[in-house]
## 1
Amino acid sequence: GEDVEQSLFLSVREGDSSVINCTYTDSSSTYLYWYKQEPGAGLQLLTYIFSNMDMKQDQRLTVLLNKKDKHLSLRIADTQTGDSAIYFCAESIQNTDKLIFGTGTRLQVFP
Amino acid sequence: GAVVSQHPSRVICKSGTSVKIECRSLDFQATTMFWYRQFPKKSLMLMATSNEGSKATYEQGVEKDKFLINHASLTLSTLTVTSAHPEDSSFYICSAFGGNTEAFFGQGTRLTVV
């Protein structure tokens, strides 16, 4: 079955880069996504990458995809305190609109 | 961008009562909506796929008689937690696709059963 895993916590100093990692099992995924969840709020789509791409950059965000290893990462450059949140990676299941989410990584940014 | 509105954002109910959560797509038609549940310190779990005009498709392990899903129109899906118990306390989130690659999520509903 589909399974998506992430480390639970990440703590970084303000101004440093953050790298959040994700591994997935379904090799037929079409898209892979990164969502941000702030306390008490719903999910905000940060970025996504098509499965035939290796990298996507969007301002401070860089997504790297290693399809062979089924590994996805999100790099946040110049991390700010406002970036503190839970970050979920998700994979779409081929031929459906279903998303399978990772366990979420809580990012804490300290001054 | 497309907006999905979920209501209520927070509800407290007594054990044994039922609670209805609404999910509306405000500016697009969603033939399919999804309901997720978020467990503490765990991931979002897909509960069911809600199809307009037909029965919902439930994921393995989700009790269909307990979590009633109705998708009466192209803009509204409802999740009713029947005979709620404290273990049903959770954060429930709906999502809908707006016809492209992006899923739009509701704000979520924090359900507390006392």
Note: The interface with chain B takes residues 4, 8, 31, 33, 35, 40-45, 48, 88, 96-104 of chain A (CB under 8 Å).
## 2
Amino acid sequence: EVQLLESGGGLVQPGGSLKLSCAASGFRFSDYTMTWLRQAPGKGLEWVSVITGSGGSTYYADSVKGRFTISRDNSKNMLFLQMDGLRAEDTAVYYCAKEVFGAFDWGQGALVAVSS
Amino acid sequence: DIQMAQSPSSLSASVGDRVTITCRASQTISRYLNWYQQKPGKAPKLLIYEASSLQSGVPSRFSGSGSGTDFTLTISSLQPEDYATYYCQQSYSTPRWTFGPGTKVDI
């Protein structure tokens, strides 16, 4: 069974940084592209970033490009999202997800709140 | 980016009703369309992939159809556990995936 467990969320001031982690189990982690998606309170779903199985290619939504960095450690089955220069509009539940042909298997999510 | 629209934005239905939700893409996406169910405080759950393929473990009362720009999700007989918000998502424009705004199904 696929399990994805996010951690590292919390309250941060505007301009601050936070690093999310996602522990994966139940599948061969290095074989899969992994993504981060988010959902602002009471809002819809938004793709944030993606990294290929080897970690060799990464992509970012325009809204986070230059501020967020996705990475992975295949030896530890871990996915990360380093978030710098956080803004109020980054407040959301962040989900890590396993991607298969463009469809997602989601973790339970971690709340990131950006406020002074 | 490809824009996704859903209708209605919300609907009220009773147990046993047949429910249909529509999703429209701003350009053709072939059959690269997925449907998710999300309950309050929970992560989305994949129901249908590639327009009409039922994800393993999903009840057969859920079905999907469509191609090109117009798609539908149908619940043949609504059950109490089906009250949730449903989202469509295009997987045609990888990795610039986009989601519809959601359809809330309640009593």
Note: Chain B touches chain A at residues 32, 34, 36, 42-46, 49-50, 87, 89, 91-92, 94-102 (CB under 8 Å).
## 3
Amino acid sequence: DVKVTQSSRYLVKRTGEKVFLECVQDMDHENMFWYRQDPGLGLRLIYFSYDVKMKEKGDIPEGYSVSREKKERFSLILESASTNQTSMYLCASSVASGTANQPQHFGDGTRLSIL
Amino acid sequence: GENVEQHPSTLSVQEGDSAVIKCTYSDSASNYFPWYKQELGKRPQLIIDIRSNVGEKKDQRIAVTLNKTAKHFSLHITETQPEDSAVYFCAASIRTGTASKLTFGTGTRLQVTL
């Protein structure tokens, strides 16, 4: 069974802080993704990575950056946290698509509050 | 970019009835359509998916249909049970290199009442 682990379930930070959200997967997946989930807006893609040190912007990358130094770990960074970044953050991973799209497997999420 | 619309936002059915959730997408290049179920406080879980070369797929009480011409797809749950109560998300995927980039709908909260 695929295991995607996010380091914190709940996190409270202050405006202006630099915040790190960590995600680890144990299935040797090539692709990793960061989403944020807000009521009435569904899941929106922030960034994704298809290989170590490779990253691509998703639909809402502003205010975020990512790091993928090892295949199993994908970090989301809020450079200077703001209150509008209060949200549920979900990490996901998938194998490389090859000739067909592959399903994404999600972690339990980190509920981040910025005060 | 891709835009996915999902309806209804809330759905209440009686146990044993059927439930239907509908989604439309905008980009004809989308070729993979997964459905996720998210129970309260839990992670989204894939329940069924369909690829663009297939019109219908069924897995026990769950089925998904795809109309590529009209750019819409639907989730059908038959003989609903209380444990089907959750938020359901549809998504459409465009392949970017070796990654499938998903665009999600806004979710449908399904309540199955006794």
Note: Chain A touches chain B through 31 residues (CB under 8 Å).
